[in-house]
Amino acid sequence: MSVNRRDLLRAAAATGALGAAWPLSAQLTTAQAHAAARNLGATWDPAPFTLGVASGDPGPDGILLWTRLAPEPLANDQPLPTTVDVDWVLATDPELSNKIAQGQTEADASTGHSVHVPVAGLEPNTRYYYRFSAQGKESRLGRTKTAPTGAIPSVRFASANCQAWHDGFYAAHRGIAAEDLDFVVHLGDYMYEHGQVGGTPIRDHEGPEVHTLTDYRRRHALYKGDPSLRAAHAAHPWFLTWDDHEVVNDYSGTSKPLRKRRAAAYQAWWEHMPVRGDTPATPQIHQRRMWGDLLELTVLDLRQYRSAQNLPDGTILGAQQKSWLKSTVDTAPDAWRCWVNSIMLSQLAKQGGGYYFTDQWDGFLAERKEVLTHVHDAGLRDLVVITGDWHSAFVDDIRPDFDNAHSPVIGTEFTAHSVASGAYSPDWNQTNGPIMGKANPHLKYFEGNRYGYDVYEVTPQRWSTHMRVIGDRRDPNSPVSTLTTFHVDRGVAGSYEDPATIGSPAQYRRA
Ligand SMILES: [Fe+2]
């Protein structure tokens, strides 16, 4: 085990030395910030491509390539000219000899010297390799893949969510990088605007939270200092949605103070992600993508358009996205449908009434019922929802009316473990697993003592969710194993656990 950043930060907090240990503290010079980050296990690629490379939004004929020039990743300003020419090349071999496309683009200070290159005219279902160069330096090699068309025998992809940098290393991303995958989906909480260690708030500047574009850029750059995260980006194309912590905990709406902060956070997010579009003020996240004829991926944005929670006429989707989602249901192809959903869709009621968290769909009861009733009325089948946010694993039956035990099962929700963000204590999980199970007849499984990611293996006949877990988030090289596997058979609503792993540890399992 190398340096353990979680315990180092906790020890620093306990002795009042967090200001010197936390790399983004205002009191540190840039050189001190980098030293503090390295002391916590951060490394970066050689300048100027310190943050690595990434690809995103793979289609059958194109892909988005990303990098950002940041010679001094934690500096307030980068030692770069206002614009820098960046060359890129894409080929079918890792030596980049069979070049398919190449070009030059400009990295501009106004967008953090980030680079987003949409490459078109590619072949479906094909592996590609790419590299950037600028200022006489080359980036690392990236690997990506376009979407297939037509009939395909299978698709394999992974999801990741909730990666609080101060809470642990990203052994889960090391696992994702090594998996044989078509793509990766990020379910949100890619970075956290706040942090606490040992009960002490982590302070970047005057307060414990980040507010300005510079603040958010430095946080993103620190997160990219985990080499496993850069490896996972370089290994596979990603689809992304987001949750609250990319901006601020549990946010909704556009009040004046929030508007400014949100704009800074959105821009920094866009600058650091392999996403399309050139309007960082309001990135469009929600979209529908096909993976051959086998899988329809519907990416939802549950943050940008929502109202406040617990209103009778509240919305989590916003009017436009809701009608768009309903229309995707009406026009769904004969395929598996996967909703990429940042926060829990299924009801999670407390014993005796009320809900655990109304920031999730439980705070938008009328809209949830409306959407799920629409799914049922339209006869949509083979719906699987993949979810993050909770830092623990759940498997739920989805029903249009969760309060009615006779309401039909119309799909399955898999809520995944977090990459690193702290879950409840083993004691809490042991006590509350059975209580949640009793209060929620649609809840089939709960496990909260572990960290990791999910791998989905989908064929025309069956959907399988493999819960991959790491041994210890304090260890960047922690081994990855499969805790359990759940299956959904095509045409049959509802999931079942693989007999081979049904005896694996969990704090709740419906008999
Ligand atoms: Fe989270």
UniProtKB/TrEMBL annotation:
Report domain Phospholipase D N-terminal positions.
Answer: 51-146
Alphabetic keyword roster: Signal
Give yes or no: UniProt keyword Glycoprotein: no
Provide the leader sequence positions: 1-26
Q: What Gene3D superfamilies would the database entry show?
A: PhoD-like phosphatase, Purple acid phosphatase-like, N-terminal
Give start and end of each PhoD-like phosphatase metallophosphatase domain: 157-466
Q: Name one Pfam family in it.
A: PhoD
Q: Which domain of life is it from?
A: Bacteria
Q: What is this protein called?
A: Alkaline phosphatase D
Where does this protein come from, organism-wise? Herbihabitans rhizosphaerae
Upper classification of the organism: Bacteria, Bacillati, Actinomycetota, Actinomycetes, Pseudonocardiales
